[in-house]
Amino acid sequence: MHTYVNGDNIYAKKSAENLGELLMGDQIDNSPYRFQMNVNESIYLCTTTPLNEHEVKLLKQRTRDLYQVNMILDNLPVMRFAVQNGVKIQWTGFPVGYTPPGSNDDYIINHLKFTILVHEYEGSNAEIIGTGEEGLGVISESDKSKASGYQIVGFQVSPCSVKYDPEVMTSLHMYDNITSISCPSELDKYQVIKEQERISFTYEVEFVKSDIKWPSRWDAYLKMEGSKVHWFSIMNSLMVIFFLAGIVFVIFLRTVRRDLTRYEELDKEAQAQMNEELSGWKLVVGDVFREPNCSKLLCVMVGDGVQILGMGGVTIVFAALGFMSPASRGMLLTGMILLFLILGIAAGYVSVRLWSTIKGTTEGWRSISWSAACFFPGIAFIILTVLNFILWGSSSTGAIPISLYFELFFLWFCISVPLTMIGGFMGTRAEAIEYPVRTNQIPREIPARKYPSWLLVLGAGTLPFGTLFIELFFILSSIWLGRFYYVFGFLLVVLLLLIIVCAEVSVVLTYMHLCVEDWQWWWKAFFASGSVSLYVFLYSINYLVFDLQSLSGPVSATLYLGYSLLMAVAIMLATGTVGFLTSFYFVHYLFSSVKID
Q1: Which of 216, 246, 273 represents a domain boundary (last residue)?
Q2: Which tens digits make up the pLDDT trace of 235-268?
Q3: Cβ-contact 446, 518 below 8 angstroms
Q4: What tens digit of pLDDT does each residue of 531-545 get?
Q5: For this UniProt entry, which residues form the secretion signal (predicted)?
Q6: Is 549's pLDDT higher than 90?
Q7: pTM, entire model
Q8: Spatial CA neighbour of 578 closest among 518, 528, 517, 514
Q9: How many angstroms separate the CA atoms of 90 and 483, rounded?
Q10: What is the 3-state secondary structure (H, E, C) of 266-306?
């Protein structure tokens, strides 16, 4: 929280980027723009040398690729307003240049009109509460007289292109005052980008008093646009949930309960005769808990899924309660990484306990814990390393520095791995889940089906995706278009609905497979809900093609697809875990009620 008096230089305090900022490639550098509190002025900055062919090509390419300039003043991102189809839209940052529709000429933005909103208050009547940017704090009675002055509560810009006479401008020195400039509306008065042109850069500053107070200064950035769309998404999800809940209700009350009640009412001789006439799910009673293929991989994936789901859920809850301030850049990603490290205990515990349940012994728990600690982080590390080599090859400033790699390795092997091993040890001490029925020595043959079962599994992912895709659009826009996403209340509701839909879909599909005597339900239950990740990845490709026209070149597209793949893998593990655990307890409950020897 900074307080200024008239004429104070508004300075930027250089601070070290946190872990989240470094991973996102955010680097903050001081600009040559100079502001003095409540001093309205028009300033000349500089004039370039005549542009050569390479510089013209680069500027035109950056303009057509819609490159943005992002600026921050007193921790507030610069905001501009644009009118599209009669609707006023707010954006953060401003473009490098402008290309008129149907024109081959490109024009550079070389004049900026800054509007800085300031709030004035008297120290004797003020009690200032911070917003978390530099920690919560209340100014005491003795400090109020010192704190009186002005605080910056808004930062806006109107960018434009102005053609100057280079002979006149070169006679000026940096930070010389010039006359106020009106942004032209005719193209012939814009500064065109072409060879031998000399471009002059200028800016204006206007301070405007505002009634906005310090704690409310972020409200303009966090205005919830399109709330009806979010409500539509939630209502759509509720309809899917009620539909699936009806199917589950029918399965439990009409089919399962009816069969079990009828079976329990028979005497022993009738039960023995009925055992010979059993059909459907009751026929696989001796095979339903047979060890699945690749059981170790299943245990590891379920453990990592619990870890990812816990990380996402706790992060969204904290953000919805307002603990993740948008003023603290990178805090969201930093918090997610720390939570992921801590929840390694849960990953190790769940993996080892599921392993001991399937195998009937805790032997090999160290291998399971180690695999759980390295599976998803290993995938993330491989993807990030490949993408980082691409960034290094293209000399991008967004590349992760080598020092950060060592930090990540330290966090991984010195915090996450030991915690996962501790969780695995706790899993060996937990009581293993006992199966309600015995497993036959010889596996039962699965009847042939008219169509492969994986088609049904892949199709099941469309229902969870239907609850997710609208919020997914807003999340992708916030990541790739620089928009603020702060409707975490809606996101929390959508997460809860997604968990319910995944659980219901998986239970329904597991029951359907058991009814056709298919006892290999373990992986099908996992991928019935986990297949939503396939549709998330396909939607990400659709978003790249139709909504990210500004993302040009193979390097940018590769980065986008790499991060989308990582997101899809995380979603697969989290949603697949929800479906598997729900189906496991459903099957356990179902067969614990059967008295078949």
Answers
A1: 216
A2: 777 777 777 777 777 766 656 665 556 555 555 5
A3: yes
A4: 999 999 999 999 888
A5: none
A6: no
A7: 0.81
A8: 528
A9: 9
A10: CCHHHHHHHHHCCCHHHHHCCCCCCCCCCHHHHHHHHHHHH
Say which residues have a Cβ less than 8 Å from residue 220's Cβ, sequence separation at least 6: 79, 90, 154, 212
At 208 the three-state DSSP class reads: strand
d(CA 417, CA 146): 50
Same domain, 207 and 237: no
Contacts for 424 with CB less than 8 Å, ≥ 6 apart: 348, 349, 351, 352, 365, 366, 368, 369, 372
Which residue type is seen at 60? K
- For residue 500, being part of any structural domain is answered with yes
The answer for residues whose C-beta is within 8 angstroms of residue 394's C-beta and 6 or more apart is 555
Residue 89 pLDDT > 60, yes or no? yes
430-447: pLDDT as tens digits: 887 888 888 777 777 777
317's enclosing H/E stretch is: helix 295-320
Locate tokens 């396939």: which residue? 534
Give CA–CA dist 380/391, Å, rounded. 16
**Is the pLDDT at 528 greater than 50, yes or no?**
yes
- Chain centroid to Cα 591, Å, comes to 39
Range of the domain at 204: 31-216
Co-location of 184 and 237 in the same domain: no
The answer to whether residues 236 and 181 belong to one domain is no
- What's the structural domain count of the chain? 2
Of 114 and 138, more confident: 114
**Rounded to an integer, what distance in angstroms lies between the CA atom of residue 35 and that of residue 47?**
20
Backbone φ and ψ of 501, nearest 5°: -65, -45
Residues 347 and 369 in one domain: yes
Q: Tell whether 201 and 248 lie within a shared domain.
A: no
Same-domain pairing of 115 and 149: yes
Task: Name the band, by pLDDT with cuts 50, 70 and 90, for residue 460.
Answer: confident
Burial of residue 181 (number of CB atoms within 10 Å: 0-12, 13-18, 19+):
middle
The whole-angstrom separation of Cα 425 and Cα 514 is: 34
pLDDT band at 147 (very low <50, low <70, confident <90, very high): low
SS3 of 425, please? Answer: helix
Which of these three, 168, 195, 216, is where a domain ends? 216
Helix (H) or strand (E) holding 135: none
- What's the rounded mean pLDDT across residues 320-331? 75
Domain membership flag for residue 279: yes
Higher pLDDT, 474 or 422: 422
> Is position 11 within any domain?
no
Same domain, 405 and 494: yes
Q: Which tens digit of pLDDT belongs to each residue from 349-404? A: 999 999 999 888 888 899 999 999 999 999 999 999 999 999 888 877 778 888 88
DSSP result, 31-77: -S---BTT--EEEEEEEPPPP-HHHHHHHHHHHHTT-EE--EETTEE
Q: Are residues 501 and 408 in the same domain?
A: yes
Contact 321, 335 (CB under 8 A): no
